[in-house]
Amino acid sequence: MTENFKAPEGWTELDARAVDTARVLAVDAVEKVGNGHPGTAVSLAPAAYLLYQDLMRHDPTDPTWIGRDRFVLSAGHSSLTQYIQLFLGGFGLEKKDIEELRTWGSKTPGHPENFVTDGVEITTGPLGQGISSAVGFAMAQRRERGLLDPEAAPGTSPFDHFTYVIASDGDLQEGVSSEASSLAGTQQLGNLIVLWDDNEISIEGDTSIAFTEDTAARYESYGWDVRTVDWTQGGTEYKEDVAQLKAEILEAQKVTDKPTFIRLRTVIGWPIPELAGSHTVHGAKLGPEGVAGLKKAVGFDPEQQFQVDEDVLAHTRGLAERAAAAKAEWDKGYQAWRSANPEAAALLDRLSARELPEGFAEAFPTFEADEKGLATRAASGKVLEALAP
């Protein structure tokens, strides 16, 4: 841990060491395979750890639990940001999986892939796709709640959860993210919280050559709740104020009528000596000197690779125990809902089993041939209306 680290209340030295463990694992993994994206995984380690260990409601032993919060790594190129948290939290990845990053047949492909790695909600990688899909996640959650538990007060339904996103500069340059974000504001998706890693570096280099708009103002115009956490202190010094970030996220959770956009100003690759803030750390291995420099900066042995202390791992794997308590509390509300809403519960069971309703085939409209014909889009629309009135 460096001197410029402000932990949230309740964190211990073990939490700080776990954050630095994540940084070291990231650079070792990229160094071993010879390619990858270490920079963001190093500088965002505190934010990712905060989400996974402190804020998100999830269960490492049951990654598909319906009561969980969802996490989308829109910055899919920084897959290590997520993989290392899945390892630390005990979602099914082990240290050998981190060592096998970007190798054929591993559980840790270059970009996160659903159905390959437990805990990955959706395959991401193409810039802008993750944040856009997360808007769909948030809309789906609201649809599910409205279908199954529409009368519950905000925050009291077993179907209430948040979708969290980590997005990069490159994500927000893409047109699709603009369109989806505008829709999210219009739809008032208060269950969506986006962390923008504003480090002013993308694949082509410094964003000053391609991306200089006032992004926060753009999101305000979309109707989002916009917040800023500046770890660069306006460019004067670097301080990883994780406590402030946690406070802003907790406030964002209270906003029910707007999605939240948190601008997190960071320096990519911090605290790697000489290389932090450079395009070099975005998508290439650091080299022996860079790796050793980081390890020395955070108090790790530069001669060791993939160092994970037993007490640190035991601490982070305690997430399962904490999750079990939260899940048990959630289950009380869920069982009460099932008892009070047997028809809705039966609908949920059918949907979960991916079974179509009885007689669905009879609901299809038929179209008689005639000289005028019918546009395909019109026919498709009538079929969809029949299936989901």
Automatic annotation (TrEMBL):
Q: Report the EC number(s), separated by commas if there are several.
A: 2.2.1.1
Q: Which GO terms describe its cellular component?
A: cytosol
Q: Which cofactor does it need?
A: thiamine diphosphate; Mg(2+)
Give the matching SUPFAM superfamilies: Thiamin diphosphate-binding fold (THDP-binding) (SSF52518)
The answer to whether UniProt assigns keyword Lyase to this entry is no
Question: A GO molecular-function term, please?
Answer: transketolase activity
- Residue span, Transketolase N-terminal domain: 15-357
Q: Which domain of life is it from?
A: Bacteria
Pfam families cross-referenced by the UniProt entry: Transketolase_N
For this chain's UniProt record, which GO biological process terms are given? Answer: pentose-phosphate shunt
Membrane-crossing ranges are none
Q: Keyword set for this entry?
A: Magnesium, Metal-binding, Thiamine pyrophosphate, Transferase
> What PANTHER family does the database record attribute to this sequence?
TRANSKETOLASE, TRANSKETOLASE 1-RELATED
Homology family:
Belongs to the transketolase family.
Put simply, this protein is called transketolase
Q: Which organism is it from?
A: Brachybacterium massiliense
